[in-house]
Design a protein that fits this description.
The chain has about 270 residues and is α+β, with helices and mostly antiparallel strands. The protein is about 50% helix and about 20% strand. The chain has two domains: about 80 residues, Winged helix-like DNA-binding domain superfamily/Winged helix DNA-binding domain (Arc Repressor Mutant, subunit A); about 180 residues, Beta-Lactamase (2-Layer Sandwich). The longest helix has 23 residues.
């Protein structure tokens, strides 16, 4: 049973009325954002188990409102510009307005390190959301759409949030066991990787979030040393040696400090 189905059953047990069209809207946006691939209405309907007619009407409505965009040639839907505008409400205004000022810094890091640079933020208690991405224009791109959401433990950024949130072990294990990892990963190893953050200041995910992808991340702290964002370098797995990934981690620490000064300095 998936997480969404479990949540629906839990709500039903508490007597909460589930409005299915609303649930379908969020599931459609989530699937399109997380898969980063334009999809046909028939495929969305089949995968999400939505009545075809209902699914088509929801897609048309969301397209009219700008939350989705429709390609008339391929007959496919993808996330629309309105979702990116909504990110302004999920991120503190000072941070979002400073993001444009940070872009040259992120672009330089992407080019210098030959990686894709991403910025992630915690969303609620169980998700992280991608709010900014910059790629190296001179290399093969790893495209990641703003608005993409992941379970909060996933990737290098997820490990950082777990460390800085000081998540209790029982809660950490429970959340860990609900995640479908791309490669086999046991809880003991995951916990050790979190503990290593204390000594080195950065985290790494070597193909467990997505097979074939390695990510390294550093925390962006506010003036009270609370982790607000993460800055992550994304590469194809095996592109660099373990030593070079450590170098990337150290460089991200420096970048994270600059971002902290830009976003949160008094």
């Amino acid at each position: 049973m998936n997480i969404q189905a479990s949540a629906a059953l839990a709500a039903a047990d508490k007597g909460i009325v589930i409005v299915k069209p609303v649930v379908y809207c969020f599931r459609i946006v989530r699937m399109l954002a997380e898969n980063k691939t334009p999809m046909r209405a028939s495929y969305i309907s089949r995968v999400l188990e939505i009545n075809p007619s209902t699914c088509f009407n929801i897609l048309r409505t969301m397209t009219l409102d700008g939350f989705l965009s429709f390609d008339s040639e391929s007959k496919t839907y993808q996330v629309g510009s309105e979702l990116e505008l909504l990110l302004q409400y999920l991120v503190p205004k000072s941070t979002f307005s400073s993001m444009e000022a940070a872009r040259p810094m992120l672009q330089k890091a992407a080019a210098t390190l030959n990686v894709t640079i991403t910025i992630w933020k915690k969303l609620g208690n169980d998700r992280i959301i991608l709010i900014c991405t910059e790629s190296n224009p001179g290399a093969i791109r790893i495209d990641m759409a703003a608005g993409q959401r992941l379970p909060h433990l996933m990737g290098a950024s997820g490990r950082l949030f777990s460390y800085y949130d000081q998540t209790e072990e029982t809660e950490l294990r429970s959340a860990f066991e609900k995640i479908r990892w791309a490669r086999k990963l046991n809880f003991t190893q995951y916990k050790q990787e979190i503990q290593q953050i204390c000594a080195r200041g950065w985290a790494i995910d070597d193909g467990y979030f997505s097979q074939g992808i390695t990510s390294v991340a550093a925390p962006v702290l506010d003036s009270e040393d609370k982790m607000i964002l993460s800055v992550s370098a994304v590469t194809f797995r095996g592109s660099y040696s373990e030593k070079h990934y450590a170098f990337i981690g150290l460089e991200l620490n420096k970048l994270a400090q600059k971002l902290s000064d830009l976003f949160f300095s008094q």
